[in-house]
Amino acid sequence: MKKLLITLFSVFSMANVNAATLTADTGWSSFLFDGTGSSWSETFTFTITETSTLTVTDAFLSGDIFEVFSDGTSLGRTSTPTSFDQQTFSNYDAAAADSRWSTGIWAFLAGTYTISGISFDSPFDYGRAALKLDTGVSAVPVPAALFLFAPALLGLLGLRRKAVATA
């Protein structure tokens, strides 16, 4: 029931949200939010021509969790912080790498997108967070994936040879 109410609230409250263009590979774009269930102060639109990743992270005061939407469809939530830290922290790169702050990363194919979000859970009545778009990022580097795949394939071939030899 809570999830339904939060989703309905976010849809109705997006009428008052500002739109901003998110430019790839230019760093973090911040947004504000009120307490639990509130929409972000901005929606972000972007067009990409190659695979890219979107990173959303909390900062300022830890403890906030966001539900992120692409064109009105939920992408999911950012991570649950491992602890609450009330220090003022505005280094988004460090926050994204620190488990005390909530972070989520999503891959996008070429296209045009509109990103919005809500504060799914917040121990405070307000906050600040940010997102960034990085292009040319592969979810799994192909050379690394091949090196991981090769031993598994050899193991399966070995099992098959053993099964054929015993038959």
Please characterize this protein's 3D structure.
The structure is a single chain. This protein is of the alpha+beta class. The chain folds into 2 domains: 2-136, Jelly Rolls, CATH 2.60.120.380; 141-167. 25% of the residues lie in helices and 37% in strands. It has helices at residues 2-13, 92-96, 142-166, and strands spanning 18-21, 29-34, 42-48, 52-58, 65-70, 73-77, 103-108, 111-121, 126-135. The strands form 2 sheets. A 5-stranded mixed beta sheet has the order 1-3-8-5-6, with helices on one face. It has a 4-stranded antiparallel beta sheet with strand order 2-9-4-7. Strand 5 and strand 6 (73-77) form a beta hairpin. The chain is elongated and about 70 Å long.
Spell out the blueprint of helices and strands.
Layout: H1 2-13, E1 18-21, E2 29-34, E3 42-48, E4 52-58, E5 65-70, E6 73-77, H2 92-96, E7 103-108, E8 111-121, E9 126-135, H3 142-166
Parallel strand pairs: 1-3
Antiparallel strand pairs: 2-9, 3-8, 4-7, 4-9, 5-6, 5-8
**Stretches where pLDDT falls below 50 for ≥5 residues?**
4-16
> Roughly what fraction of the amino acids lie in strands?
35-45%
CATH class of the largest domain: Mainly Beta
Q: Please state the CA-atom Rg, rounded to the nearest Å.
A: 20 Å
Mean pLDDT rating: 80
Strand order of the largest sheet: 1-3-8-5-6
CATH topology of the largest domain: Jelly Rolls
Structural class: alpha+beta
* Whole-number count of domains: 2
Q: What is the name of the CATH architecture of the largest domain?
A: Sandwich
Extended strand count: 9
| Helix count from the secondary structure assignment | 3
Q: Helical percent range? A: 25-40%
Span between termini:
57 Å
Order of helices and strands: HEEEEEEHEEEH
